[in-house]
Design goal:
Number of domains: 1
Largest sheet: 5 strands, mixed
Bound molecules: iron/sulfur cluster
Order of helices and strands: HEHHEEEEEHHHEEHHH
CATH topology: Lambda Exonuclease, Chain A
CATH architecture: Alpha-Beta Complex
Number of helices: 9
Oligomer: single chain
Distance between the termini: 59 Å
Radius of gyration: 22 Å
Number of strands: 8
InterPro entries: PDDEXK-like_dom_sf
Helix content: 40-55%
Length: 253
């Protein structure tokens, strides 16, 4: 009689504790994110995006390609960024900088233009520097903080924010313009998420960049109002910007 060996390999494996717990956390985070009210304005932090078509998708709340919906991990990455920003605020204050991040009512400072269709919320304003830094940091200065992995952080340190991250430079210029903080260079702080190293860069106001960024916002809004699509950034979907774009399938189908 032929031997029958029992094959247990096809039974679904029960999830490990880590998998089960993470699935619960991710489900909760994604559900919570789904209840957030839709943003019905162009965010100043996004206007440096090199693709105007993508800005239209964002403004019009066009659904992302299903496989690119925000995952629990992506939402945790956003949350970790906020923690680094809070830490940087504390570190600068301990060093003697008078850094204001909220109004007396507890609200973030910001601006709203074009009948509320372009808005931005700033990380803070340095209103006074400690005596030993007053020759370096003029005030009042817009403060912008980003956290980055080691590779991106080193790139910012090496090349400067304008060359390494033009999208941040556009944000800084626009925010300086709309907040009336153009006299003193902005203070841009970058936190290395891997090593906790800090980088600070003084970013002089770039009026041409602020104007170009503001003009881009007007162009995006006008096209959306007219029901027209602005040109794609590339002629082919394998362009690096498209390869990681959440609207790639929709855009090129
Ligand atoms: S797929 Fe490419 S062209 Fe289309 S919105 Fe995204 S980045 Fe722009």
């Amino acid at each position: 009689m032929a031997e029958h060996s029992l094959d247990f390999n096809h039974r679904p494996k029960p999830p490990t504790a880590a998998e089960a717990i993470n699935a619960l956390i991710d489900t909760a985070l994604v559900a919570e994110n789904g209840t957030r009210p839709r943003r019905d304005y162009l965010g100043g932090s996004r206007l440096g995006d090199p693709c105007v078509r993508r800005l239209q998708y964002e403004f019009l709340d066009v659904p992302r390609d299903p496989e690119t919906a925000f995952s629990g991990q992506t939402l945790r990455i956003f949350a970790v960024g906020h923690v680094f920003e809070d830490l940087a605020i504390g570190w600068l204050r301990r060093a003697g900088f008078d850094l204001r991040t909220r109004s007396r009512a507890g609200e973030q400072f910001g601006f709203s233009v074009a009948a509320g269709r372009v808005q931005g919320h700033i990380d803070g304003v340095v209103v006074a520097a400690p005596a030993s830094a007053q020759s370096v940091v003029a005030v009042p200065a817009l403060w912008e903080c980003k956290s980055a992995n080691a590779r991106n952080w080193k790139e910012i340190v090496r090349r400067g924010v304008a060359a390494a991250k033009p999208i941040y430079a556009a944000q800084v210029a626009l925010y300086q313009a709309y907040m009336g903080l153009t006299e003193a260079p902005a203070l841009f702080t970058a936190v290395n998420k891997d090593t906790a190293e800090l980088h600070h860069e003084l970013v002089p106001f770039d009026g041409a960049l602020a104007q170009a960024t503001s003009d881009k916002a007007v162009r995006v809004l006008q096209a959306c109002d007219a029901g027209e699509w602005l040109p794609r950034i590339a002629a082919e979907p394998d362009h690096p910007e498209c390869a990681r774009c959440p609207w790639r399938t929709r855009c090129w189908s």
